[in-house]
Amino acid sequence: METKRRKTEEFPAEGSRDPGAVDSMKLSGDSGDDKSDLSDIHSNSNAEGLDDDVQKPEEHPHEVAGVKPSTNVEEVHFKLEGHPHEVAGVKPSTNVEEVHFKLEEHPHEVSGVKPSTNAKEVFFRGVRKRPWGRHAADIKDPWRKGCVWLGTFDTAGEAAKAYQAYDAAARELRGPKAKTNFPMEINKADHDHTIKQKMCRSRVCLSEITDDKSKPNANAKEVHFRDIQKNTDVEVYVTAAREFLGPKAKTNFPVEINVENKADHYHTTTIIMDRIWELNKKKDIVCLILSYPPLNLVSKERHKGWIMDVLAITHKVRKLKASSKEKEVNLPELVSDITGLLYHSFHDIEAYVPHDMIEEMREETTESRMPEKEVLNLTIDFALRQILEYIEIPELRRIGISGIDDTRLVSRLKNLPTIRNMFDVIILVSASNYKTIEEIEDSIARELGLSTVSTQQVDELLKNKNFLILLNDIDYSIKLNDVRTNLWNLKNIQKIVSTSRFPGVHHMQVDLEIRLKDHLLSWELFYRNVEKVHSLSIGIQLQAIHVLKQCCGHLLATVLMARALKGVNNVRIWEYSSHALQLLPPSQTEDRILFNALAFIWGLLGSADQKCVKYCASYLEREGTDNVDLIGRWIKGGLIGSIDEGDEIIRNLVNALLLESFQNGNSVRMRDEIFKELVKLFKTEMNPMLLELGGMELREAPVEEAWKEAGSILLMNNRISKLPKNPHCPKLNILFLQVNHHLRVIPPFFFECMPILQILDLSHTRIRCLPQSLFKLVLLRKLFLKGCELFMELSPEVGGLSHLEVLDLEGTEIINLPASVGKLTNLRCLKVSFYGYNNNSRKNHKPDTVIPKNVIANLLQLKELSIDVNPDDERWNVTVKDIVKEVCSLDRLDSLKLYLPEVVLLNGLRNGSSSTELSLMHYRFIVGSHMKRIISRLPLEIVGKFEKQERCLKYVNGEGVPTEIKEVLQHATALFLDRHLTLTSLSQFGIGNMENLKFCVLGECNQIQTIVDTDNDGDVLLESLQYLNLHYMKNLRSIWKGSLGGRSLLSLKSLMLYTCPQLATVFTLNLLENLYHLEELVVEDCPEINSLVTGEDLSDLPLCMDYLPKLKKISLHYLPKLVSISSGLRIAPNLEWMSFYGCPSLRTLSPYECRLDNLKVIIGEADWWSALSWEKSEWLRIPNLDSIFVPIERDKDWMTQLAELNSQLKAWMQETKPSQPSGSGTSSKQKQVLGALSGHQMATSSSMSAGKLSLDLEL
């Protein structure tokens, strides 16, 4: 289809404005006017008469020649140009309407000027006089063909003052070269030290600047300098001009700087350092944003020269400071150069990142919401991408990464294939171990195998090589400028990359600082535009993270997807959106992610909206058009029926960012990037539609006619048992059929007419095999068969799916993996489960191996590998050694799940290639021989939480303390000791090996008597531990034994104790003082516990101290000897949930032990509650708590009731409809309490966090 839009042009050079350039548009709001790029507009107007008073000037420090003004002149302007040393004469035209005195070159001599006698009035920019005498002010924008109205005023002077907004915007865009009516007032005190010449302190009288031949006219009223208002000090303009342009400023009077004056010199150098700091901060932010798509494709070249200039002037300043030759440099000129660079225009960047976000990064005041761990991991990915973007620039010698508290980024950078191929020498130094430069340089020499005595050898070795020196966790006292100063050779790629935990520590000592916090940029953009995602269900919050990850930091696509999903409560749409972003477009496109985002949004639009979008992509002028005109064209074309409908569609498209509004919302236009990708989308003639029928309890699939136009079909969570025999689906990309438990057979020709199907999900169905037509899907990229428990054999024809990237067979019952899987060279994710094999029942059908040799080794693109096997399968014990060797050859692997029946197999992973460095990977290792028939008594919920951790180690049926386990434990974030046979204390594994441990589960370790047993006074132990779960610990007697360091267990949030029959002590007083962040406590089936807190002289402690200040939930079940919660200590001032069951000895509660201020739920048996008494207090009044008590019925399973109640409370917290409980249902009393709580929640919603409480109330 022909289009009237012009071809996309490149961004203009600095200082120009091409109509094709991307205009500034804030992405944070639904709609709004753009800040227009302003041009110099000259409009005629009639000026008001000026004051006739003529004041006598003070003495001028320079001789000024005379001027013959016109008899009709009302105001004379001086144009300040060139170097202010002489004033040359100017002979204006006889028709001139505004007389300027042009100060050129050196303003020491002024020749006469004979202005025209026809000069009439003084005119201001953009001011027009109305016939009735008032003055109007507006700004014409030639690029957008419209006016920005400023208002109507009584006088021309007042109208001109309205242009001060124009002046500010012009300076923002043009910097010091902007043409304005009035000067910018600055604090000239900062520069008084550079100005030693006496200046004029009053207005200049016309009679004072005449030569011998001139005769001042009696009608001349007053002389004004150009760009200086009446009653404005001349010196203000002079100072402002030099503020912007330094020694090249166009001023009336020259500047003299005394470099010998120490005070002047000090103040000037201070200004230089302040501005170079600000300039580099601006450069760092620009470099960070330019590393994100689409800016890295369209705007990088425009800013490259500016970045090089900033680096050059920064190096110059560093050399001056180091060489003490500052007096030999023209400091004012240096100030001028730095200031000029500060006014570099970034309007194209602000088209993607809102100005306020950039300012927050510049001021380092960003207060980001704490994102999920997966989002924090994205910051490392984006930081690595930025490093790769700039690492080949020779001038960027030192790169600093701040705000990093682990070694993952440095280790991943070191092992990237691109980095290893780029550099001849890569050295990693743990700089936290060294406090001086000499120690760091000695470490570098040792890494090179050289003597630490002579640094000359190191310099000679490295000077002509491409080297990368990584300084991890460098101390703030180290001066990076002094590290290896004799190495640099611009002909080679030579870098020093340092990391620090604190931002800005070495900002002026590096050429590029990368703050990890700033790489939350895309997450902040998504969060701003999607709005209230934190109040949605947990499932949607997880899917939101997946969507953000699939956007890959693409700023425009991130905002488009966020606005498209704003207000969507259907988790299936969210899941579908993350898959849609991964599709391969049917046509060539430079921006796949943006193309897929627009295709997804197109599928969500209504029919009328789609027609209007297609019209705009085809016929809308590039510079935009008026809303009324566009609606008229839509109506004329039959696309809509009324103006109101058109207004509604424009609002929808602007809110979706498919169109942008400008000129106070009266006009719209389309972004060039969106236009390009929409044209490509329409050229494919796909125009895909979304058929979303998930979760509707369908028993039959849609009729075949409904499949024809669909690009995505979502039929998950239904009861479909039969599919169409051969549906015609030429446009189908995505097909979701998961969780249809009645689906057993797929027709043989079902996939025959789905030529472009890319994503197929058949998970949790009851199919036994795949039809032959599936293996003809040559474009299939993702195949999910997760949880298909009856699926037992994968056809060898799967090797023909050459584009397959994801093959998920987790939870199936297949017996072996066919050798043809090795042909899937594009495979990035492989998950398999081999549980179908049984040694006794399948002796007659027994493949020799689980996975044929070299299959894994051929999958060089593999990033995620999960192999789950039946521990009774003897074949795995033979295969696993070869599998470990093949895994070590995979360079791109970053996620690994393996079952290792012997501890010694860990050596293969630890000593393999660098690609298996455990500190960089997500892994889940199950180590130790065990039998499938032994069922763990650990709750499934705890198992699920454990498996979600980043690096998990499960050690089963262990004996002793193997060295291999201790070394893997150094990197693990989660540990599960299951049925360890000999361990008496967790400390035997070495507390120092558990510094990264966040999640710890111990189950059926019958010899353990205490968790931590230490004699080292003051050592900080288990500082990172957040979750501690102990289950069925037969001989456990205490949590902690020995001295306790000040920060030990400081991060602990959850403590759960189940079935510990010998445990009598939960908290000692010392331990209690460290548990500042504890939020949840569960103690169940521990019959020896009398009180949670034990110790001597507890009664003598001050009553004013509160322990466990963040504890919100206490669950005490089956504690027959419990008589007191905390032995009278004040605990948990913010307690919200209390649950009691099987605690018959607990007959009295104290308001000091159970703070009632924030209590919202009390759960227990009805007869226990009726018999309970409260200790009387002179200071605290006991309220009536019956309204928040929820009874547990004895004749029903109490665990089921507790789980149902917890589920409903979480639904209430998330402001969604509570799910219907299974079993017997909720009692009327429970419903009554839930209703009361719901009303209470509405009244206190501002003080409660639904997301936080949903975690606190989770069982």
Automatic annotation (TrEMBL):
Domain AP2/ERF: 123-183
Protein name as annotated: AP2/ERF domain-containing protein
Keywords: DNA-binding, Leucine-rich repeat, Nucleus, Plant defense, Repeat, Transcription, Transcription regulation
CDD domains named in the record: AP2
Biased composition (Basic and acidic residues): 1-10, 53-65
Subcellular location field: Nucleus
Record's GO cellular component terms: nucleus
Gene3D superfamilies (alphabetical): AP2/ERF domain, Ribonuclease Inhibitor
Keyword Kinase: no
UniProt family annotation: Belongs to the disease resistance NB-LRR family.
GO biological process: defense response
InterPro entries in the record: AP2/ERF_dom (IPR001471), AP2/ERF_dom_sf (IPR036955), At4g27190-like_LRR (IPR057135), DNA-bd_dom_sf (IPR016177), Leu-rich_rpt_typical-subtyp (IPR003591), LRR_dom_sf (IPR032675), LRR_R13L4/SHOC2-like (IPR055414), NB-ARC (IPR002182)
